[in-house]
Write a structure and sequence with these properties.
The complex is a heterodimer of chains A (about 210) and B (about 375).
Chain A lengths: L1 H22 L11 E3 L38 H27 L9 H6 L3 E5 L14 E6 L4 H4 L7 E5 L2 E2 L3 H10 L3 E8 L2 E8 L4
Helix pairs in contact in A: 2-5
Chain B lengths: L16 E6 L4 E13 L8 E8 L3 H8 L16 E7 L2 E3 L11 E10 L16 H9 L3 E6 L6 E2 L4 E5 L5 E9 L5 E13 L6 E9 L8 E3 L2 E10 L4 E10 L3 E8 L4 E11 L22 E3 L15 E2 L1 E2 L4 E3 L4 E10 L3 E4 L1 E9 L10
Parallel strand pairs in B: 9-12, 17-18
Antiparallel strand pairs in B: 1-2, 2-11, 3-10, 4-8, 4-9, 4-11, 5-11, 6-7, 6-10, 12-24, 13-23, 14-22, 15-20, 15-21, 15-24, 16-17, 16-22, 17-19
Classes of the chains: A alpha+beta (about 210), B mainly beta (about 375).
Chain lengths: ~210, ~375
């Protein structure tokens, strides 16, 4: 019963959010706004020609009050979980970005074969909500992996949570940034799989 | 008033493939057809529309979205997997393959191609956001907008050596607005020609799409007054990259849209609108002409692959920029400039560019050097 109510509340909440999105397309954006700069010259307005049917049947209703829409009325627990994930993601992003900027890390310092490795693989930070620390991650999940990528050839799969590179735990975005500078042509990668460790030597020469 | 399109579960998916190989270049050519899109009959109140209908969502996301949006029930099949797309040429067609355009009472107001398996770098998914595209991404899991076109059928031709990577398992989707001006209901299809190479057979430098929009993260429609407007949208580059290719989309009376690096003073691309000679939908005044991001005039075009007459004087072309090579440093201020010169105001003008970036080095979608 409790689960049913939770699902209903979630449906109603997200439904409301989507309804708002559909019915208020002209609502103000939170990000940078477009700015219409004044015309340099003034021209008399010409008669508007209209191709029959070239205009929409009617303008969608605007959010006339210009108010921010209400947040989706998610199940409180689900809402907290999603919000927390966003916060953790943002904090980890910032730690990585600060490291790169303040320490002057540059792509030129990364070997071509490591840069090539990421042409066909994308990682994403993973967070265990129960034990997450602000600014840190709980491993890196493989979000995309081509069959041509050396990790795929070593048996890794999309969705694997990588836990260590060359023995170093993947928890600190700053450390992960530095690790990119020191990776050689061969290194050990470990992932969590079926409750255990799956470790393999990855050879970039095979990529 | 949006069109409430109610679909029965009997609507069948129709996806057709035609794949040809060009052995020398290891390029494959695949034509994909998505549809049918069921358009109601036009009435005295206006055209029959599929207005911001969504295709390609499934499962729980589809159920949620179907409560309040029109959801198409055909799959948005990819032309390939684990591959690099190098060329995209869109079209809107009737069932017999005839191009749908103004002359036969059809208009492709816009179509956006999404990869729901990746976030969008200028509009990250966030269910709590007040912005529609962010919320869509929050529901479906990602909202990378990798291509778009309008009735002018802007295409993408990615510079040699580069490609847009399609990962195994990526989920694609569409959001579109299509109009029927005839008094009977009709079914139409999107027909896209893709050129691609197998990622396992050929190395390419991966490019990432960037969506530039004067109404970023929303429905892309803005109110524009009569007269001249230079509508802008700014973005601080969060990654060092090289812009490889770009194309633009503006509506009738649009002159141009440009992507300019305000930090370096370099314009990466100016996409200029084209109209037939004597068009009554051409801009009614000049652009600024102050720099290459603000050309003085739109183009007058004499022909079009789809038949210039089919556009009945509406915008028929946008120039695209290839092999750009504009380097952008992390932190640079980029800005879109959309020049429009209208005879009257409108509440649904657009200024969009879709470009491709060769990133210096990224580990995740947002952890970049």
């Amino acid at each position: 019963m409790g689960k049913t109510l939770t699902v209903v509340a979630l449906l109603a909440g997200v439904g409301l959010a989507v309804y708002w999105w559909q019915s208020n397309p002209a609502a103000p954006a939170a990000g940078p706004s477009p700015s219409a700069e004044p015309a340099p010259t003034s021209r008399p307005a010409a008669e508007r020609a209209v191709i029959p049917g070239s205009e929409p049947a009617g303008a969608a209703p605007a959010n006339a009050a210009g108010e921010q829409p209400p947040l989706p009325d998610l199940d409180p627990e689900e809402a907290r979980r999603r919000q927390r994930l966003l916060e953790l993601e943002q904090a980890a992003d910032e730690r990585f970005a600060e490291t790169v900027e303040l320490d002057g890390l540059h792509a030129d310092a990364v070997s071509p074969s490591v840069r090539n490795l990421f042409q066909t693989m994308t990682l994403e930070p993973h967070f265990d909500l129960g034990q997450a620390t602000e600014g840190y991650v709980n491993g890196m999940r493989i979000a995309e992996l081509s069959g041509a990528n050396p990790l795929a050839k070593a048996g890794f799969r999309r969705g694997d949570r990588l836990t260590r590179w060359n023995g170093q735990p993947l928890v600190d975005p700053a450390q992960i940034a530095y690790a990119m500078l020191s990776l050689g042509e061969e290194f050990e990668v470990c992932a969590e799989r079926e409750g255990g460790d799956y470790c393999r030597i990855v050879s970039l020469g095979n990529g | 008033m949006k069109t409430a399109t109610v679909r029965g579960c009997l609507a069948a998916a129709a996806v057709a493939f035609l794949t040809l190989s060009t052995a020398q270049a290891q390029e494959q050519h695949t034509t994909v057809r998505w549809g049918p899109i069921h358009l109601p009959a036009a009435t005295a109140d206006g055209p029959g529309e599929a207005h911001n209908e969504i295709a390609g969502v499934s499962g729980f996301s589809s159920f949620l979205l179907s409560l309040y949006a029109s959801i198409a029930d055909y799959p948005v099949t990819k032309p390939c997997e684990d591959c690099y797309i190098t060329h995209i040429k869109p079209n809107l067609v009737l069932e017999d393959g005839t191009t749908g355009n103004m002359m036969n009472g059809l208009m492709l107001h816009h179509v956006v191609n999404f990869n729901f398996s990746r976030p969008d770098i200028t509009c990250r998914p966030n269910i709590f956001s007040g912005q529609s595209i962010k919320r869509l991404g929050g529901v479906v899991g990602g909202n990378e907008r990798f291509f778009a076109s309008g009735n002018e059928r802007t295409w993408a031709d990615i510079t040699d050596g580069y490609g847009y990577y399609v990962a195994p398992g990526d989920d694609w989707g569409l959001v579109y607005h299509v109009m029927n001006m005839r008094p009977e209901p009709r079914s139409v299809y999107f027909e896209y020609e893709f050129t691609w190479v197998d990622a396992n057979a050929e190395n390419r430098d991966r490019v990432r799409p960037i969506w530039v929009d004067i109404d970023q993260c929303n429905d892309s429609e803005v109110t524009i007054p009569a007269g001249y407007s230079d509508v802008t949208w700014a973005w601080q580059a969060d990654r060092s990259h090289t812009v490889t290719d770009m194309g633009g989309h503006v509506h009738d009376y649009g002159i141009s849209i440009a992507w300019r690096n305000e930090s370096s003073g370099e314009t990466a691309c100016t996409s200029v609108a084209g109209y037939a000679e004597g068009s009554s939908f051409a801009p009614v005044g000049p652009g600024l002409g102050t720099d290459d991001a603000h050309p003085v005039s739109a183009n007058t075009v004499a022909s079009d692959p789809l038949g210039l007459g089919g556009f009945m004087g509406t915008i028929s072309d946008m120039t695209i920029c290839q092999n750009i090579g504009a380097e952008v440093d992390k932190g640079d201020q980029m800005k879109a400039h959309t020049q429009i010169y209208r005879p009257d105001s409108t509440d649904h003008d657009m200024g969009i560019m879709v470009g491709f970036l060769d990133e210096d080095f990224c580990i995740t979608n947002f952890w970049c050097f």
